[in-house]
Design brief:
This protein is an all-alpha fold. Helix content is about 70%, strand content about 0%.
């Protein structure tokens, strides 16, 4: 190697370092923009929209994330961590009822402000590729035992009616998220009113003061079938037009 080459080598190595920093900076810009765009418009938003929000060229976005699924997968890592935090905080509350209320409220709060997350939670089958079975397993392993324990404790403490099952809460959560989606355009916080009504129905009452539940609860396997088979939204569930009079 001649003297000129020896002098050029450090310069070339140094020149690559800002590029690496720029690449990481662009990655964070893209992730930040994707959070905003997906939260506002849902997972159907395009990479072009995300590039515009980030102030970057579309080519830069595609170099970092070859498709929308790869970008969604990166964002879902943050979602998993957030859900784990909510579950941990719910479990630490002294009264199990308060833990259940906190868990349900925080999850609805998070999804109420994030249409992209609502899309994932409400369309598990169609977005399972983005979510990934490993993330789904993490959520199940973390959430289900804690909620089961809170349900049993809340019943033992006399706050939750004894005929409520954990799967009942799962259905209530899905129904509530659907309500958030249904009312988001006109009253994005109305879910709080409906949740208050629901929680009142879950409260334990003196003997004879509650209306008996006429059907037994579904089990975990049945709930799983419902979650993976159900579709929602105008693009997935055909809406029947009313017949003319």
């Amino acid at each position: 190697m001649n003297a000129k080459s020896e002098m050029a080598a450090p310069d070339a190595a140094t020149a690559t370092r800002p590029l690496r920093r720029d690449a990481e900076r662009n990655r964070q810009l893209i992730l930040g923009a994707a959070k905003v765009v997906f939260a506002q418009r849902g997972l159907e938003a395009s990479l072009d929209e995300i590039a515009k929000e980030a102030g970057l060229g579309v080519g830069t976005v595609y170099r970092r994330f070859p498709n929308r699924d790869a970008l969604i997968d990166a964002l879902l890592d943050d979602t998993v961590a957030s859900i784990e935090r909510i579950v941990d905080e719910a479990a630490e509350l002294p009264r199990a009822w308060d833990g259940l209320v906190y868990f349900i409220t925080e999850m609805l709060e998070k999804q109420g402000n994030d249409k992209g997350l609502r899309d994932v939670m409400l369309t598990r089958e169609s977005h399972l590729n983005e979510w990934g079975p490993e993330k789904d397993d993490i959520i199940r392993a973390k959430v289900t035992p804690v909620v089961d324990h809170l349900v049993r404790r809340a019943q033992q403490e006399g706050d939750l009616r004894e005929d409520v099952a954990t799967t009942d809460l799962g259905i209530i959560m899905i129904a509530s998220v659907s309500m958030v989606e249904f009312t988001a355009a006109v009253a994005p916080d109305i879910w709080r009113r409906q949740l208050s009504i629901t929680l009142d129905g879950l409260r334990a009452r003196p003997a004879g003061a509650t209306i008996p539940l006429t059907q037994p609860p579904i089990d975990d396997a049945q709930l799983d079938v419902c979650m993976t088979g159900w579709k929602y939204g105008s693009r997935q569930t055909p809406r029947q037009r009313p017949k003319p009079c």
